[in-house]
Sequence to fold (265 residues):
Amino acid sequence: MTAINIPFITIGPSEPHTHTIVFLHGRGDNARDFADSLTHSRDSHSRTLIDAPTRKCASTPDTWPQWFDVWDVRDFAANEDLQAVGLKEVVPAIRRILADEAALLGGCWDRVVLTGISMGGATAAHVLFNLDVAPPAKERLAAFIGFSCRCPFAGRTLAGMRNVLGLEGGPDHDRVVQNTPVLLEHCTDDPLVLIQNGRGLRETLRGFGARVEWKEYPNGGHWFNSPTGMDDIVDFLNRHLREDISPGIPAISLHQASSDAMDLS
Fold:
């Protein structure tokens, strides 16, 4: 399959660059609008927001910005192989972006955070499954964070997940998945990606040996919970991103601006 390049925008740090947080937005959104839905503190972390390709939907006449197509949003397992088509295109492209970001940090993959919401989180999960970080770099990312997301092709082994996409240059081990700290947040009133789908991603990751922190919130819909969920993100990042850097590095702060829920995952 022909490699594709995916555009992205970068919000640079105002202090010496210590980490990069890579965001994947949800279906129907785009990097610029997603950036505008958040307010950013000025700190030592660069934010890279990646744009999903625009795709024709197979089951409707619509065209959407989406990482992959979904046949039936009420039944994600229906015609599930359709989802692999887009994932095969975007996962290698996102891996290249992560590699470039790690290179900017001196080859330190463990200072790159991979984050996604909705369909972006589902896509990011498959990036994590198919990510190889070779020594002497630490064989992990700084963290993986997913919001309101699920796991396409759930129920398979890690090898089975990789076989669905059949990508070149993938790992033959599970160390990146097992070594990367994971935070998953989901609101129980999410009407688009139901809470049981988020729990399914949690169990899939735990089954692969990942260290998963799981947070459920009673409200927030198909979006971030605020303020508790935002506080939990900050706590998680401050605990895991500050492990290997000078204690003089400032703590992270993060603030959410109001936004409508995205379409679906």
Residues 81-104 form the longest helix (24 residues). DSSP finds seven helices and eleven strands in the chain. Residues 246-265 have pLDDT under 50 and may be disordered. The radius of gyration is 17 Å.
